[in-house]
Design brief:
Order of helices and strands: HHHHHHHHHHHHHH
Radius of gyration: 21 Å
GO molecular function: transmembrane transporter activity
Number of strands: 0
CATH superfamily of the largest domain: MFS general substrate transporter like domains
CATH class of the largest domain: Mainly Alpha
Strand content: under 5%
Low-confidence stretches: 1-12, 401-409
Distance between the termini: 27 Å
Protein name: Major facilitator superfamily (MFS) profile domain-containing protein
Number of domains: 2
InterPro entries: MFS, MFS_dom, MFS_Exporter, MFS_trans_sf
Subcellular location: Cell membrane
Keywords: Membrane, Transmembrane, Transmembrane helix
CATH topology of the largest domain: Growth Hormone, Chain: A
Mean pLDDT: 82
CATH architecture of the largest domain: Up-down Bundle
Shape: globular
Helix content: over 70%
């Protein structure tokens, strides 16, 4: 022990390199711009579906179709990144997403809009793991956790600003214009991606197709937990704008802004609490707040209650998401964290595939039963407390919840 102390002191006194290299700043900006366009489209696609004649069920189908190809493309991220440079893959991914926005803007019917969603899903299936990997590549090893934390904050800002910007534009112009702006910003991100430094030492790897190359069995429980949590939030993403319009609530897009602002304010505090008391001690109360948010949303008839639901969702789902991810990353050896992260994304993608369609069908059935669309929304959001309740039970049954410092990226 005594002999090791000088080594530890030397390590502690060694100056820490800044995370803010040119490459890290550039990839963070690319992620910010690309995700800003993505979150703008989250609020716009349900409105576009309704304008093109879709009923509640078809709005759910079009919204959820995104997850079909996103989920499918996740299986190939690990294989493709071993064969091609990540910089080139990111450039191609952003061009593909730009094509999706072009289809949205030009869509004369639900079929073309649906095609755009499928193309968009492929692009987004690759975008998240690619930008995360490139950000990690640009960081010093001893600053990985803080650097990834800042990178994820840029994504949270996109979540806060995107829907509000999209709906603000929608209030002043036709729905095609916001989609064209998304196209332009994504194209700008692609140009920035092409300007990233080349990886001169890259050598294509021989890829052996085995189950563990695509899926981390150890991360299954966190993936199932996040599936049930994301199922709840997917229903909000798909229907909260239409819900607000049904109740004549002005500025319904503020829901997303308040949600993300609450999440941004809460995450540093809840992260420190998780450091001290463990992940589960913070995660379970946050899940309870998320469940309560659906009750408040279901009973909302004006902007104050809608924003109260947004605050609860920010303290709930917004806080739980990185904590569940830490469970996934902590369940495997360091060299398998990319696969564990991808497994975690499978749970999210599956939720966004199934839930909008199921929630749309539930809304249609409840509206028919009660004879009122307002009552239909109330019933749907109350039913969506059930998947969150299942996530709470699974979290309570999780034997070990590693602390964030055990899961440094």
């Amino acid at each position: 022990m005594t002999a090791a102390q000088p080594v530890l002191r030397d390590k502690e006194q060694r100056p820490r390199r800044s995370i803010w290299s040119q490459r890290f700043v550039l990839i963070t900006l690319i992620g910010l711009i690309a995700n800003l366009a993505q979150y703008m489209s989250i609020a716009l696609v349900p409105v576009a579906s309704a304008k093109l004649g879709g009923d509640a069920f078809m709005v759910g189908v079009v919204t959820g179709a995104f997850a079909i190809t996103a989920l499918g493309s996740r299986f190939f991220v690990g294989v493709v990144t071993g064969r091609f440079p990540k910089r080139a893959l990111l450039f191609a991914t952003l061009l593909l997403i730009a094509v999706a926005f072009a289809l949205y803007a030009a869509a004369p019917n639900l079929g073309v809009l649906l095609a755009g969603r499928l193309v968009h899903g492929i692009g987004m299936g690759f975008l998240a793991p690619l930008t995360l990997a490139l950000a990690a590549d640009a960081l010093p090893e001893d600053r990985m956790a803080s650097g990834i934390g800042w990178f994820s904050m840029s994504q949270a800002f996109s979540m806060a600003a995107g829907p509000a910007i999209g709906l603000a534009l929608l209030g002043t112009t036709s729905i095609r214009i916001p989609f064209l702006i998304c196209l332009a910003t994504t194209a700008a991100a692609a140009v920035m991606a092409w300007g990233l430094p080349r990886q001169h030492d890259f050598a294509p790897a021989r890829v052996r197709l085995r189950a563990e190359s695509f899926f981390a069995r150890e991360a299954l429980r966190p993936a199932v937990i996040v599936f049930f949590l994301a199922s709840g939030f997917a229903s909000v993403n798909a229907f909260v704008v239409l819900f607000g319009r049904e109740h004549d609530i002005a500025s319904v897009g503020t829901y997303f802004t308040v949600y993300a602002a609450t999440m941004l304010a809460a995450r540093p505090i809840t992260g420190r609490l998780a450091d001290r008391y463990g992940v589960r001690a913070v995660m379970v109360p946050s899940m309870v707040l998320f469940l309560i948010s659906f009750v408040v949303l279901a009973l909302s008839h004006g902007l104050p209650m809608l924003l109260a639901a947004a605050v609860l969702a920010g303290l709930g789902y917004g806080v739980c998401q990185p904590l569940v991810q830490s469970l996934a990353l902590g369940s495997v050896a360091p060299e398998r964290r990319a696969v564990a992260g991808s497994t975690n994304y499978f749970g999210v993608d599956l939720a966004y595939l199934i839930t909008p369609v199921a929630a749309g069908a539930l809304l249609t059935a409840a509206t028919g039963s009660f004879g009122s669309t307002t009552a239909g929304y109330t019933a749907m959001f109350l039913v969506m407390t059930l998947p969150v309740a299942v996530a709470i039970v699974l979290a309570l049954r999780t034997r070990r919840t590693p602390r964030p410092e055990e899961n440094s990226l």
